[in-house]
Amino acid sequence: MANKPVKQSPAPDWAERIGSLRLQLSLTQASLGQQLHYSAMAVSRWERGLQEPPADCYIRLGDLAGNPDCWYFWERAGFRSSNVISALPKNKRILPKETFPEFDIVIAGSGAKIANGKKSQLVAIPLLSLYAGSHGTAGDKELDLEAARAEEMVAALASWCPNPSSTTCLRVKGTSMAPLITEDDIMAVDYSQTNHATLDGKVVIAWHKDTGLSVSRFRCYRGVQILEAENREYQPVTLGCDRGWRIIGRILWWTRMAP
After folding, report:
1. Are 126 and 189 in contact (CB under 8 A)?
2. Phi, psi at 42, each rounded to 5°
3. Residue 86's pLDDT is what?
């Protein structure tokens, strides 16, 4: 008696969406895997529905897909559009294009460029699971912000993010920058702005191998470069005395929940 052919189960929806996105982007499995920091074999398993991607891959897939398809991948990562939409006050919220068609959505940290056009634009900025310490408080040791894990998305006006492809958010630990910036505030950092000559008087993120990420005000007094706290009870750091310090980027703005 002839064996009946085994009926294969259809691939899950997420597998088909990954394959469709790859073809839409004209990428091979190897090139898509390279962008996601995974192997071509892993992409193949995803597209065949044998293994579902982890959350960090879904976030990057959403970044590659752009609006409105980004919402599908972000939700697979555990995000909800309602969480993103409610991240800021009503006049600064990011919404899916089909809900708010007169706006364009730009995904920050993804290489996306602000285009000239008639539509107003919003930027979805990754909120990293990282803390920058203020003076006297150690921050996270991660140096490469592009490689850090995103836990949520924050919406902002495009005019607040001049370089969306190199903008991300992180939180504050410590109180030496109070009352300007307080503990648990969310800061947007542009990590393309590292030229010391343009940062005098600006709030910056610096990094040191011993203290990790740090938020300070950068000053240059007669050629001497220092990092200052807003609270003058904390001693400033002179950069020339310790060559282990690096300026990671400029703080564009910060926000907090109302008490």
Report:
1. no
2. -65, -45
3. 43
User: Crossing angle of helices 40-47/29-36, nearest 10°?
Assistant: 110
- For 211-238, b/e burial (b = at least 16 CB within 10 A) is bbbbbbbbeeeeeebbbbbbbeebebbe
Cis peptide before 179 (omega within 30 of 0): yes
Contact (CB, 8 A) for 225 and 238: yes
**3-class state of residue 68 by DSSP:** coil
Q: Specify which residues 184 forms β-bridges with.
A: none
* Eight-state DSSP code of residue 256: -
Partners of 132 in beta bridges: 172
Question: DSSP 3-state helix, strand, coil percentages of the chain (rounded to 5)?
Answer: 25, 30, 45
10 Å Cβ neighbour count for 141? Answer: 13
Residue 37: its pLDDT value, please?
Answer: 87
**What is the model's pLDDT at position 104?**
54
Residue 90's pLDDT is 40
Q: Where are the alpha helices (DSSP H) in 98-145?
A: none
Alpha helices in the chain (DSSP H): 13-24, 29-36, 40-47, 55-65, 70-76, 81-85
pLDDT < 70: residue spans in the chain: 1-9, 79-121, 241-242
The torsion defined by the Cα of 35, 31, 79 and 105, in degrees rounded to 10, comes to 80
- Mean pLDDT of all residues in the chain? 81
